Amino acid sequence: MLVTKPQNNFEPVHAMLMQSFSAKVVMSAVDLKLFDRLDGLPRSASELADEIGGMVERLEPLLNLMVAADLVVKSEEGYQNTSRASEFLVSSAPRYQGSCMRLTMRFNAMVEDRITELVCGGEVSHTKTDWGIDESIEGSAQDAMGGALSHVLEFTAALPGFSKFRLMGDIGGNHGLYTMGVLERNKDMSGVIFDLPSVVEKSQAQCDKYGFGDRVTTQGVDFRKDHLPAGEFDLILTSHVLYIFKQDLVGTLRRIAEGLKPGGWFVSHHYSGYGKPGYEMSKTSLELLTRLCGYSSHFIEQEELVGILESLGFDNIRCQPVFENGLGLMVAAQKGA
Fold first, then answer.
1. Which of 181, 206, 256, 324 could anchor a disulfide with 176, C-beta 3.0 to 4.6 Å?
2. Cβ atoms of 322 and 279 closer than 8 Å
3. Whether the predicted pLDDT of 131 surpasses 90
4. CA 15, CA 43: separation in Å to the nearest integer?
């Protein structure tokens, strides 16, 4: 027969394909500052169209997509932000994520049109992602503010003897928020941010801007080969950095141990739990993106990291998820005295 009845429903696959378009629509809504305009009293589609110079017959379905995404609510009075949109998508909000979203979209764009080629051995040019430019630093800072930063700071400040810490090192500290956040919780501490030479000048400028310039210094390093000053730090912290050293975690953690004082603490924040239930599509997409870019993994499992830390003489190891069933894991370990 020419026409036969399908045995399965293709609609879920089609819906997944449309999600790529939907993500770009959300980004456009941010660029149009629609969430700024919807933060407060409800607004009609025609009123918003007049303000942005848009066409109401095109803007209205865009707003309805925002409703479907649970970013906007619709009533008889018009459209209005949900609390999530007001917290993260209004440009004046403290935890605004616009630059973070642009950074993610830009990084994805490096590979999404070349997946077939990359799976078969093609290479990505990493020069397209410069972590020392303002947009990358701001995007990374927004990601931290809107997610794990406050949790990592609470986890760190709860370590035994924290009030007696005097010097911390932040490897890959970039925007400086982790260093400044720790120092804010211990007025007697100073910090050193270690990052690539192209980044540290911007890191110092960030710390100067927020009034921490007299307590923070920066140093350009390539931690794949450089060593930290030996035995100087009460605390060494890394956030989303260890993946770079996944192929030599033992050597990397040994160099971190060298930099700590006896009894000093190492804290890592990174993605973990790849095989555990929850966020399967996000996890597998992130891991594929990482592999296509030529890195070994974007996940470091708790068992692997704890085992290496124990073999290097760390003890009092404590582990805690950032969010229940989420991707983030916080690990703290104390160097033996």
1. 206
2. no
3. no
4. 29
Longest dimension (CA), the chain: 81
pLDDT band at 33 (very low <50, low <70, confident <90, very high): very high
Instruction: Find where tokens 């490897």 sit.
Output: 171
Is residue 128 predicted with pLDDT exceeding 60?
A: no
Q: Find the radius of gyration of the CA atoms of the chain.
A: 23
As given in the structure block, the two tokens for residue 145 are 């503010």
Asked if residues 35 and 89 have their Cβ atoms less than 8 Å apart, the reply is yes
Question: Could you report the per-residue pLDDT of 293-321, keeping only the tens digit for each?
Answer: 888 899 999 999 999 999 999 999 999 99
Question: Residues 139-143: contacts with CB within 8 Å, 24+ apart?
Answer: 139/99, 139/100, 139/101, 139/102, 139/103, 139/104, 140/100, 140/103, 140/174, 140/175, 141/99, 141/174, 141/175, 141/177, 141/206, 142/95, 142/96, 142/97, 142/98, 142/99, 142/100, 143/97, 143/100, 143/103
pLDDT for 133 beyond 80? no
* CB proximity list for 10: less than 8 A, separation 6 or greater: none
Q: Which residues on neighbouring strands pair with residue 194, listed in sequence order?
A: 171, 219
**CA–CA dist 213, 206 (Å, integer):** 8
Q: Which long-range contacts (CB under 8 A, 24 or more apart) does 198-206 make?
A: 198/130, 198/131, 198/132, 199/131, 199/132, 199/137, 199/174, 201/132, 202/132, 202/134, 202/137, 203/137, 203/173, 203/174, 203/175, 203/176, 204/176, 206/137, 206/141, 206/175, 206/176, 206/177
Amino acid 326: pLDDT: 82
Torsion over CA: 315, 194, 283, 97 (sign): positive
Instruction: Identify which of 184, 180, 258 has the alpha carbon closest to the alpha carbon of residue 217.
Output: 180
8 A C-beta contact, residue 239 and residue 172: yes
* Closest CA relative to residue 328, chosen from 303, 300, 306: 300
SS3 265: strand
C-alpha 249: how far from chain center: 21
What is the percent of the chain where pLDDT is above 90? 86
**8 A C-beta contact, residue 175 and residue 204:** no
